[in-house]
Amino acid sequence: MLPGPKSRVKAVALTAMTAAAYTVGVVALAPISFYIYQVRVADALLALSTILGLPVIAGTAIGCALANLYGGYGIVDIVGGSLANLIATTVGFLIAKRRFRGSLIVALLAETLIVSIIVGGYLAVLFNVPLEVGFLSILVGSLISINLLGYGLVKVLKRLGHYG
């Protein structure tokens, strides 16, 4: 059964708000959101896919495309970053949906690894550094944004009784 009109409106609104928040978060913190070494604080929003699903999955992909337009690294970064977010949040959502003990932590680690492999890989090529440097530099930033900040965000929303 398809969701009713009100549910679809809420989903579209949540997608738009997520995309906007992601874009603003990246652009406002541009000095730490771009380059080979980065802590993309807006990536904390990726964790919300574990409780909010498709609107966050779509919103973080769209937001990343918009933010990376600003970044100036071209189509590789625009498409690559968006695909990384799309794949990572989808996998994170699917893992968290299984609701086993520790599923949130496993989901966020999966998101972090996917983003680190994809983004670290193409940034290593763009910046002409070894693949390990690209991977590890994105991994450190993603552990901070997704696994620390994102985990906290999800826990706060759950504790407030809004989700899961």
Q: Can you give a write-up of this model?
A:
- With 164 residues, the protein is mostly helical.
- It has one domain: Arp2/3 complex 21 kDa subunit ARPC3.
- The chain has seven helices and no strands.
- Helix 5 packs antiparallel against helix 6.
- It is globular and about 50 Å long.
- It starts with a helix and ends in a 5-residue tail after the last helix.
Largest β sheet strand count, sense and barrel closure: none
Distance between the termini: 22 Å
Strand content: under 5%
Show unreliable segments: none
**Radius of gyration, taken over Cα atoms and rounded to an integer in Å:** 15 Å
Helix content: over 70%
Shape: globular
Summarize the structure.
With 164 residues, the chain is an all-alpha fold.
Describe how the helices and strands are arranged:
Blueprint lengths: L4 H24 L1 H4 L15 H4 L1 H18 L3 H23 L5 H25 L3 H29 L5
Helix pairs in contact: 1-4, 4-5, 5-6, 6-7
Features:
globular, Arp2/3 complex 21 kDa subunit ARPC3, 0% strand, mainly alpha
